[in-house]
Amino acid sequence: MNLPKDDLEHISHEARDLFKNAYKKNFFITGGTGYFGSWLLESFAWINDLLKLKASLVVLSRDPGVFINENPSFKKIKSIEFLKDDMRLFKFPKGKFHYIIHAATDNNHSSSALDLFRNNIAGTQRVLDFAKGCHNEAFLFISSGAVYGTQPSAMTNIPEDYPGAPSTVKPHSAYAESKRVSEFYCANYAKEFGINAKIARCFAFLGPKLPLNANYAVGNFVRDALKGGPICVKSDKPVYRSYLYSADLMIWLWTILFKGQKNKPYNVGSSEPCSILDLAELVAKAFSPKVKIRIQDRDGKNNNDLARYIPDTNLARNELGLRQLISLEEGISKMVNFYRS
Hints:
Elements lengths: L4 H11 L10 E5 L4 H16 L5 E6 L2 H7 L9 E5 L14 E4 L10 H22 L3 E7 L29 H20 L3 E6 L2 E2 L10 H10 L4 E5 L3 E3 L2 E2 H14 L5 E4 L5 E2 H10 L7 E5 L9 E3 L4 H7 L7 H13 L1
Parallel strand pairs: 1-2, 1-4, 2-3, 4-5, 5-6, 6-11, 7-10, 8-13, 9-14
Antiparallel strand pairs: 9-12
């Protein structure tokens, strides 16, 4: 395994009871070699072995060879099989699959907005058509908090029933709009074909395997700090996010798959706000000596128009008993230690 052992033990301790119904069951995951997917695969393999479930997992990926070369331990895991194909066109594997997780997504913003939108919609429809023929027990769609559009500055946390939406006329809305339409597909496949679809609206996360050179502030800050600094913050504008550690994320996703209600979206993330400046400060403090911070644009410090992206997680807390177990500070420390090693 490549993930920290204590993280896998944390997941198995909290989620082991969920897997009691997974004995000799078959799982199917799309997007199993990305950030979310790699955590899903390793936590599945760990729990499967720990509880002797004799469960199996098929992973759909565009290029599993790259993932396996970077994670050679998966060559020895007989319970996991990799299927190289495109989510939009893949040939349905034979057999019954009891649990399906659709985590694959095209978020390559360098491609055209129409291509990104079409790819995600076509992929979701293809996976749902596969699920329709499986008569599976549960289907989990990994959606995004982006479906709400811009969070109003006066709203501290976005609840699941907030009717906001991204702009329909701006190309950068392609990803968010594709998630909205995909949720519509899930809901109506559930209604027409009986698929037990659950929806996880995911916000912001941190932890091992989060890309350091992608468009993730915390990943960029850790990258800068590992190079000796300074940590570069684009602006001092009041921007607020919240971060859930990856091991907690897995507990939430497995719980929603097994226990979530049909056709009900659940916000997934931390409800504790943190400004981007404070986030940079926490990353800087995780190093000794403390790494310096450089703010590129200081014109926004008097801007009262807060930019927030923070979920209300009361539904997941009250209905499923989910909560944030690993603090932001601890999560940053664990992420830094992972990349240092």
